[in-house]
Amino acid sequence: MGCVASREEELNNNGSNTLWKASGEEEESPTTSNSNLSNSQKKAKSFHETVHSKLAKNTYFSENDVVVLKTLFDSVAKEDDVIDESEFIEALFGKKKREECLMNQKKGQQGKFMFERRLFEKFDSNQEGYIFFDEFVRTLNVFHPRMNTNEKAKFAFHLYDVNGNGVITREELKELVSAVMKRSIFLNLDEEAIERVLDSTFEQVDIEKDGSISYEEFYRMVKENRKCIANMTIPTLTTLSTEYPEFIFLQSGG
């Protein structure tokens, strides 16, 4: 894949933290003895360990956690070292949802999976159309229980600020809520019910009464009710080294 090759060259040149297989060598287990490795394999192993160390230093994950996350990442990314949008949706919701998403794309009906696409865009911080390993780790770090409330609130706010203009409009919120409702088996609100939810939300949160929600207004709501961003914390991220994180992604593809 051309974009992957160019990305790898860029990372090798500028010393980025992103994890890559070096010189075409197969990745070695962190527990592999150096005495059993060739010089090129030792170099590759050292490179990976350095990347793990840098990611651990800049996140709440330990180096062992990063190793576990790499295993999880590889199970989704398959052979090309990146996760594309359809792989991301399959990992979260299963193979059937991925096929449905691809079918909707062909028909030009992308609204149903808008929330998942917004989440993918947040993981894809470089906006290259793929999630690289460093993006994967750094974004998951926001969901770590030790991450502060402000960073979690910022992530959630920007998720809903679809056009990126710094405020959440009624139209943006309605679009995302409607998308979630369309695929939910537990919540099936009709148009009128959704409008009532929006009315109530803006009545409580839009302090300035200007028809939009600023980050300050959003954060005030979060401080008053932390449950608003309860899904921004994944408790099991603190036990990655002892429990394989199957809670994040569906591995069966069902």
TrEMBL record:
<dbReference type="GO" id="GO:0005509">
    <property type="term" value="F:calcium ion binding"/>
</dbReference>
<feature type="compositionally biased region" description="Low complexity">
    <location>
        <begin position="30"/>
        <end position="40"/>
    </location>
</feature>
<dbReference type="InterPro" id="IPR018247">
    <property type="entry name" value="EF_Hand_1_Ca_BS"/>
</dbReference>
<dbReference type="InterPro" id="IPR011992">
    <property type="entry name" value="EF-hand-dom_pair"/>
</dbReference>
<dbReference type="InterPro" id="IPR002048">
    <property type="entry name" value="EF_hand_dom"/>
</dbReference>
<protein>
    <recommendedName>
        <fullName>EF-hand domain-containing protein</fullName>
    </recommendedName>
</protein>
<feature type="region of interest" description="Disordered">
    <location>
        <begin position="1"/>
        <end position="43"/>
    </location>
</feature>
<keyword id="KW-0106">Calcium</keyword>
<feature type="domain" description="EF-hand">
    <location>
        <begin position="148"/>
        <end position="183"/>
    </location>
</feature>
<dbReference type="Pfam" id="PF13499">
    <property type="entry name" value="EF-hand_7"/>
</dbReference>
<comment type="similarity">
    <text>Belongs to the calcineurin regulatory subunit family.</text>
</comment>
<dbReference type="GO" id="GO:0019900">
    <property type="term" value="F:kinase binding"/>
</dbReference>
<keyword id="KW-0677">Repeat</keyword>
<dbReference type="GO" id="GO:0019722">
    <property type="term" value="P:calcium-mediated signaling"/>
</dbReference>
<feature type="domain" description="EF-hand">
    <location>
        <begin position="193"/>
        <end position="228"/>
    </location>
</feature>
<feature type="compositionally biased region" description="Basic and acidic residues">
    <location>
        <begin position="1"/>
        <end position="10"/>
    </location>
</feature>
<dbReference type="InterPro" id="IPR045198">
    <property type="entry name" value="CNBL1-10"/>
</dbReference>
<feature type="domain" description="EF-hand">
    <location>
        <begin position="117"/>
        <end position="146"/>
    </location>
</feature>
